[in-house]
Amino acid sequence: MSTSITDTPLLESDFYRFQEGLTPRERESLGQLRAYLEAEVRPIADQYWARAEFPTQTIAPLAELGMYGPSIPLVRHFENSAVFRGWAALELGRIDAGVSTFIGVQSGLAMNSIAVGGSDEQQQEWLPRMARGEVVGAFGLTEPLSGSDSARGLRTTARREGETWVLDGEKRWIGNATFADVVVIWAKDVADEQVKGFLVTTDTPGFTATKIEDKIALRTVQNADIVLDGVRVPESRRLQRADSFRTTAAVLRLTRTEVAWQAIGIAIGAYEAALDYARERIQFGKPIAAHQMVQDLLVRSLMNITASIALCTQASAMQDQGIGGDEHSAMAKAFATAKMRETVGWCREVQGGNGIVLDKGVARFFSDAEAIYSYEGTREVNTLIVGRAITGQAAFV
């Protein structure tokens, strides 16, 4: 594809020029996103991270850029590919993992839950408003005593009383929950033991969300502990096409590859800061970029980034073709996050002691990587998903 069609430059860290595989319209949209992030998000990212606050002023502009529900035909701005959506997640991650995670929750988890599990009426009621940023969503699956074993271990219950459901239980690590308007709560139906989804507005009596304090990673993300104490939800707010954990798993399958792309973005953010620092930092009479050991760290970082882009490009392409399975998104997430963790460590090393302060550009990525490494399926669980696919044997317990 000719690069003259668009003014969007390739990232220097896209060493093998993968982005040239996008359509001109996708490149244009990606360029608009990058321009906004560079102008409006990068300058404030460190201060909001340090204060553990979320920049809510970014919600509406990101909606205008089409970042909420780009895969959902009802609300997407234009026809696009899973590969494009991966690059969007990468661009977001390389500037601010917190804002990236907000979009992952709003769009990938909350909106996709409604798109996959909701009735036509529910989709029409909620998705356009969420796509415009008028309604903020959250996704309530993880619990204090249930994380990787959510398929079997959910303790939050749903009990039907006529045309009303009564929800009781607790959720933990729920992103966006302190300021969300609606939370998709996954609960086990006491009648049939199946996991079902419910749209719970946060002003419902019995619903409380308390911010989790003192995090060392993703401080910008407003994670909360949720308590559901006799929360009453009408049948019309039960996701009508979500009658088992298979629906929940389908949502996670859609988002897991994008988390892998987000991890690449975080690695790139750290790499770019380390590279800039190496070019400017003078030691022994010359820039440290001219020292062999520093170049080794930078090249190994770039190799990790390039390998991860290659893997995720194919995983997303398979999703576009309808042949991507759980095992493919699981491998992408496990590989990209492991390489991200390795890369941000090397980039911190390039900066030496300066690498632990925010204003040198690596420290925030270094810290945020720890959360991305674990959420949406740990490396161990994703490895077991792939292991089951290649051996035919489940080894989860």
TrEMBL record:
<feature type="domain" description="Acyl-CoA dehydrogenase/oxidase C-terminal">
    <location>
        <begin position="248"/>
        <end position="390"/>
    </location>
</feature>
<dbReference type="InterPro" id="IPR009100">
    <property type="entry name" value="AcylCoA_DH/oxidase_NM_dom_sf"/>
</dbReference>
<dbReference type="InterPro" id="IPR046373">
    <property type="entry name" value="Acyl-CoA_Oxase/DH_mid-dom_sf"/>
</dbReference>
<keyword id="KW-0285">Flavoprotein</keyword>
<feature type="domain" description="Acyl-CoA oxidase/dehydrogenase middle">
    <location>
        <begin position="138"/>
        <end position="231"/>
    </location>
</feature>
<feature type="domain" description="Acyl-CoA dehydrogenase/oxidase N-terminal">
    <location>
        <begin position="25"/>
        <end position="134"/>
    </location>
</feature>
<dbReference type="InterPro" id="IPR006089">
    <property type="entry name" value="Acyl-CoA_DH_CS"/>
</dbReference>
<dbReference type="InterPro" id="IPR045008">
    <property type="entry name" value="ACX4-like"/>
</dbReference>
<keyword id="KW-0274">FAD</keyword>
<comment type="similarity">
    <text>Belongs to the acyl-CoA dehydrogenase family.</text>
</comment>
<protein>
    <submittedName>
        <fullName>Acyl-CoA dehydrogenase</fullName>
    </submittedName>
</protein>
<dbReference type="InterPro" id="IPR036250">
    <property type="entry name" value="AcylCo_DH-like_C"/>
</dbReference>
<dbReference type="InterPro" id="IPR006091">
    <property type="entry name" value="Acyl-CoA_Oxase/DH_mid-dom"/>
</dbReference>
<dbReference type="InterPro" id="IPR013786">
    <property type="entry name" value="AcylCoA_DH/ox_N"/>
</dbReference>
<dbReference type="InterPro" id="IPR037069">
    <property type="entry name" value="AcylCoA_DH/ox_N_sf"/>
</dbReference>
<dbReference type="Pfam" id="PF02770">
    <property type="entry name" value="Acyl-CoA_dh_M"/>
</dbReference>
<dbReference type="Pfam" id="PF02771">
    <property type="entry name" value="Acyl-CoA_dh_N"/>
</dbReference>
<dbReference type="InterPro" id="IPR009075">
    <property type="entry name" value="AcylCo_DH/oxidase_C"/>
</dbReference>
<dbReference type="Pfam" id="PF00441">
    <property type="entry name" value="Acyl-CoA_dh_1"/>
</dbReference>
<keyword id="KW-0560">Oxidoreductase</keyword>
